[in-house]
């Protein structure tokens, strides 16, 4: 159920776009209480989730290739490739332009699925808040893996829980062939009910993602890939305040945790938050 801070439990969504309305209704039907400080904060999350879904679809159509970190490549006009296979934004370009180039000039790029997730998230934030705010907030972009990103204040909950469009999930391939270690798992964006995008695999249902990973198991293996109980998403409250030009960012936004974190172990590493049962 969705609750606004003043006790409001219903929102007029008649004028909202269908994707935002659908996510709202899905969260509102869930018995978990999702509390928001304002209707604006709620709407921001729904817009960003919708934009994450669209950015994942745009990535699928971008012509960017899948590769291991070792063989990654990027457009040198916007990015410098680092030794670990990540991309460091050049100092003479704008962050918004650098992100958009990946989608408009995809053939110049190749990267792993973990890098794809970060690119999708940044593209979604860009389309949600606009170029000017994006360029102000993200002045030193580094694209590698969502596991090392700090700018988006990512939150990971290592437990089975309800998931929604825009969430980041993970399929593990425990018996991966050592010759194909880049297929030891697949980071995916949830697009809708049993519909996911994974860079290098495409848009498929869970069975399709698993079947693709199973093609890269050790010879003779009978242990299937599977979706792990884990969900990752940006700190929506932090990004909402940051995009609203609230300086300094409130301690509430910096320390915000979802209701699912209550009573669980919380570990903060840099800008990332990991939550365990």
UniProtKB/TrEMBL annotation:
GO biological process: sporulation resulting in formation of a cellular spore
HAMAP family referenced in this protein's UniProt entry, alphabetically: Tgl
Residue ranges the record marks as coiled coil: none
Superkingdom field: Bacteria
Positions of transmembrane segments: none
Record carries keyword Transferase: yes
A Pfam family it matches: TGL
Keywords linked to the UniProt accession: Sporulation, Transferase
Keyword Transferase: yes
A GO molecular-function descriptor: protein-glutamine gamma-glutamyltransferase activity
InterPro entries from the UniProt entry: Gln_gamma-glutamylTfrase_bac (IPR020916)
The protein's name in its UniProt record: Protein-glutamine gamma-glutamyltransferase
